[in-house]
TrEMBL record:
Signal peptide: none annotated. It comes from the Bacteria. PANTHER family: GLYOXALASE FAMILY PROTEIN. SUPFAM superfamilies: Glyoxalase/Bleomycin resistance protein/Dihydroxybiphenyl dioxygenase (SSF54593). It comes from Streptomyces javensis. This is VOC family protein. Pfam families: Glyoxalase. Residues 10-128 form the VOC domain.
Amino acid sequence: MTTPTPSVAELGHVGLRCHDVSKQLAFYTEVLGLTVTDHDERLGIWFLSARPDTEHHELLLAEGRDAPVGIKLIQQVSFRCARFEDVLGFHRRFREHDVRLDMIVSHGNAVGVYFYDPEGNRCEVYWQTGFVARQPFVEHIDIETDPEELLDTIRASVERHGATGFTEESYRAWTREQAMPADGAAAKEVRQ
């Protein structure tokens, strides 16, 4: 009897340890609009979902983070939106709540707004454009542009760069910087 090769159906959830769970909980429920589906205060864990009828939890917040703020633990946690208008709405909401933004970009196949949660975890809300573009594809965009005009610009960029991918120099420099250890001495040892 042969056993079929196992395969993953999809990513189910991500768990984040927190310094201040109540502050994180307020952010993810009030700003991002996730729903608390369960919690256990004795264990210090909260389960959150954007689709509680479909997925019990997509994000778990837990007490007990012992890494200092600023330590690079997570590259990003991304939340998919059903409509471009949702991404635009989150951009407005982030500005209203003074959420620190990282970048607003076209990935060709998606439009993303990158931001930081209260503990500095880098996150993204994004909408899939339906265009095909080799990754990485990172082109900064002005999300304040008329939506139809912006989508036309993204479409044209995908027509030019979709087969090869595209990254702006500022993103390449940022990526190299993020890959370096925080300790300068350690960085020198790594390069030698």
